[in-house]
Hints:
By secondary structure, the protein is of the alpha+beta class.
Amino acid sequence: MNEPREVRLSMCGWSVERIRAGRKTLTRRLKTSDRPPCKAGDTLVLTCRWAVHAKYDKMPPRDVVTTDALWTEWVGGRMVTWCLGRFRPARFVPRHLYWGFPRTKCLSMRAIRLQDISHEDALREGAGSIPEYMSVWDSLHRNRSWAVNPEVWRIEFAPVKGAPC
């Protein structure tokens, strides 16, 4: 009944860099409903900004069926020359392209207030301090800033070993 699921978790470039460096194993997401986004044991597919060849630019993501290479921020660095297509947001990665993104396990998940963060949690978020994490949060969530202290889901995940591409 409560079998583990495969859940997409979108990551920004800042987070991707820190996960690749082994510095990020924790994330917070705005709590928009009482339904948790995942549970311990679920497989998390860590999606990010992505692109495929420009010939697919006019297609909606669900229609992109490609055996061509897939560029993602997990590759790191600049987009390679074969991939001159437009960037697409992480939330629009179709399931059939999940093979290009790393997977990890959700270790724990609970609801808390954003400002209930310890120095240790800030480090596990990939920041060097709580003020640095606060600055990153505000840059990503303009309408739900740190000062509002919204309720969030605290999601702990296993370290990611390397990138899939």
